[in-house]
Specification:
6-stranded mixed sheet
């Protein structure tokens, strides 16, 4: 029989060693959790919203009582140092003085607004993407915030979905690079610094693959498709140390993401090692009832907590149901404590327990928000987000002496310049195209020419509270006629057309993604005058432009560029900056091609124009109008012979790929040289091309540079027939060029 005294001593020794092994953070947090009541614990899992009015931010009376009672751990939509201090002071009067966490949708800038993410991605410049996130974090933290619901890394192949504006397009490899850059920009290297904020990767997972491009809709795909194409950007954010993750609205394998234990526990935490906390999207727990996988809020709360959700955004389900669920043994105290621990860890890492008011600094806000330096960065990034789609006969850049007619509803709309999800952005400080052109030339006259759309319902929904010019309320035909007359009197016409900011983003899916018909009528009428036309597009998604591409000599894709939009567009129009943006999402010819993306699979009957029984349409081409990676310049680039260092490589080898690129035109310019790979034969079918690298280079006119890439076996790996991540020996083709379509190729073999 074992000695009881020795057993007791050994037990005490193990307990002492366990305590000793804890870090100061673990000791502090575990001690705090032991002192918390169940109500206080559940309160930490409760995320409530603040509201904004014309007089500023405010909290509903009932929510204030929750904060004062310690029944709310985090608040979103609350910002400004004064307001967050007021709320934090309430928290400091509670029994345990646990600080509040303040979150907000800082999606593409806080007060200084940068291009929408889909536009910014067209820079192909990770340093700039990281910089915009860094500036956004600095401004947000100066304005009382510690947490952003960004980056959105959903891979999307359907431009009908309005939320493509928030992502970076269709390519997995590129999405991985952006995810890492954004997390680093927001979180920096030290979360305890007062100018860094928690990032939140979303929407976990697969939200970009919703059926029919219709927001909040269903997703259904194979595990192979998930792992190969859709999951890697989320995984990249986790590997980069992202502090939080947000669940998506869609279901996965028949279970809503918010109740999907395989997704949130097995994959996210066990396989990927995620240590942060998981927050739902807005009322996502409640919405599981409509999904049909739970009967009521009671079942919904159990399903979400059991799956691995830590924080309930605005739904009130955890606050209302967890106590009873615990009593009924539908959830465990360990699950609640684990969720509380993860949330308190984030607050600890931010330094809020040491100084709950560290983000409530009026002096910082006055000095750092919308500084001259930040605005200059916003213009630089906006310029580099612009994509030149067409420039027939070198119509652009504009001649400064030209008599310019500026026509279109997007030409003088400050609200539209900052785009959707611009949250705290002040559109009254945005620079319009009209304002920017007038600063550069006295020979500019403007007329709107048309409303955004003649669909009254869509128009009201899209423009929302937008204050209209008097000219916008005039009769449509009179507006059009006046614009045509103005065009006739000009040397050149700049047409500012596209979508209003409300026609893209969340809850803004469109089944017809062309320029609205009344704007197209205006464009056609102006084109019929015979005057040269430059089409300047503002939009949040790829749009269909078949007629425009066939008739309009110059087309500039400008997205929604942010606070300095007008200045950036004018800079490109007049040639002060030579555009170098490249698309990260294919532009279809028409909606019938959707979904369309460059890295599609081949088929058993590949396209053959001479064989009826091959994969093709009767009424259009298979290829998009503008492919992934596409973008022109005011200069021209030529590519020399593609060279590989070896024809065969072993698994331990590196393959060098080189190609000379020459600037043959009359302008200095930047070019994004793109590298693609095709695995010719695999144990499972492989895409026709996959992006594996790029180099953005600057070339003076007449200059040649040799661009070199290095490829390793890691770049050739994929999920094989047994779902193993590996490269298979065999033949590969390398493609290098100016976009995914216009490339040179060479082959090699992996032994």
């Amino acid at each position: 029989m074992k000695n009881p005294k020795r057993l007791l001593v050994a037990t005490l020794l193990l307990a002492a060693l366990s305590v000793k092994a804890q870090t100061p953070k673990q000791t502090f947090l575990n001690s705090l959790i032991k002192r918390m009541t169940l109500d206080e614990k559940i309160g930490q899992l409760n995320l409530l919203t603040s509201d904004m009015d014309v007089t500023g931010p405010f909290m509903k009376p009932g929510y204030k009582k929750d904060v004062e009672a310690g029944l709310c751990g985090s608040i979103f939509n609350a910002y400004t140092p004064q307001y967050t201090r007021q709320l934090q002071e309430m928290a400091m009067k509670t029994r345990l003085k646990i600080p509040l966490l303040f979150g907000y949708d800082v999606i593409h800038g806080h007060k200084t607004i940068f291009p929408i993410p889909l536009g910014e991605a067209c820079t192909w410049d990770m340093a700039l993407l990281e910089q915009s996130a860094r500036i956004a974090a600095q401004e947000a933290s100066a304005d009382g915030l510690q947490w952003t619901y960004s980056p959105m890394v959903d891979i999307a192949r359907d431009p009908r979905w309005g939320r493509v504006a928030e992502g970076v397009g269709e390519d997995t490899w590129y999405g991985v690079q952006v995810a890492k850059a954004k997390v680093k920009g927001y979180q920096g290297s030290d979360l305890s610094a007062n100018n860094t904020i928690l990032a939140c990767v979303k929407h976990f997972a697969l939200y970009g693959a919703i059926e029919a491009g219709r927001d909040y809709n269903t997703v259904d795909m194979s595990r192979r498709q998930m792992y190969q194409y859709y999951l890697p950007p989320y995984k990249a954010a986790i590997d980069a140390g992202v502090a939080t993750a947000m669940t998506s609205f869609n279901e996965i394998d028949g279970t809503p993401a918010t109740a999907n234990k395989w997704l949130l526990t097995d994959l996210l935490r066990k396989d990927w090692g995620f240590k942060g906390f998981v927050v739902t999207d807005y009322t996502a727990i409640n919405e599981m009832i409509a999904h049909g996988n739970v009967k009521d809020e009671y079942e919904a709360g159990a399903a979400a907590l059991n799956a691995g959700v830590d924080m309930d955004m605005q739904g009130g389900i955890f606050a209302g149901q967890l106590k009873k669920l615990l009593q009924d043994k539908k959830v465990t105290l360990k699950e609640i404590d684990s969720a509380v621990y993860r949330i308190l860890t984030a607050k600890y890492d931010l330094g809020l327990f040491k100084d709950p008011f560290k983000y409530c600094d009026n002096e910082r806000a006055a000095k750092e928000i919308m500084s001259a330096e930040n605005l200059a960065a916003a213009q630089k990034i906006a310029e580099r987000s612009i994509v030149l789609l067409k420039n027939e006969n070198q119509l652009l850049p504009l001649k400064k002496a030209a008599k310019i007619a500026l026509i279109g509803p997007l030409a003088n709309s400050q609200r539209d310049m900052i785009g959707n999800w611009s949250a705290a952005g002040d559109y009254t400080k945005a620079v319009t195209l009209l304002e920017a052109l007038k600063k550069r030339s006295a020979n500019v006259q403007y007329l709107p020419g048309a409303h955004y759309t003649q669909d009254t319902t869509l128009y009201k929904r899209a423009t929302q509270k937008l204050k209209l010019d008097a000219a916008d309320t005039a009769d449509s035909q009179q507006m059009l006629a006046a614009a045509v007359e103005l065009a006739k009197q000009s040397d050149i016409v700049v047409m500012a057309l596209g979508e209003s900011q409300g026609m893209t983003g969340e809850a803004a899916s469109r089944s017809n993604i062309s320029i609205p018909e009344n704007q197209r009528e205006l464009l056609k009428a102006v084109y019929a005058t015979g005057k040269p036309v430059v089409l300047v597009l503002s939009n949040g998604r790829p749009i269909t432009l078949e007629w425009e591409n066939a008739h309009i000599p110059a087309i500039l894709e400008t997205w929604f560029l942010g606070t300095k939009a007008g200045d950036a567009i004018a800079s490109v129009l007049f040639g002060d900056y030579n555009p170098a943006g490249k698309l990260t999402m294919s532009f279809p010819r028409n909606v019938g091609q959707i979904p369309i993306y460059y890295n599609h699979k081949n088929t058993g009957r590949p396209l053959n124009p001479y064989n009826k029984y091959s994969t093709k349409y009767l009424d259009t081409e298979n290829d998009p109008l503008f492919p992934f990676g596409y973008g022109l310049s005011y200069t021209t680039f030529s590519y020399g012979d593609l060279k590989l260092s070896k024809q065969q490589i072993a698994a331990t080898d590196k393959l060098q790929i080189s190609i000379p690129v020459t600037n043959n035109g009359n302008f200095d310019g930047e070019e994004v040289v793109q590298l693609y790979v095709r695995d010719m034969v695999g144990s499972v079918t492989r895409p026709v091309k996959e992006l594996k690298g790029y180099k953005k280079i600057t070339l003076a006119k007449g200059e040649t540079k040799t661009v070199t890439f290095e490829l390793s076996v890691e770049d050739l790996k994929f999920y094989d027939k047994d779902m193993r991540w590996k490269a298979e020996p065999g033949d590969f083709t390398i493609f290098v060029g100016t976009n995914s379509r216009d490339v040179q190729s060479a082959g090699f073999t992996l032994k």
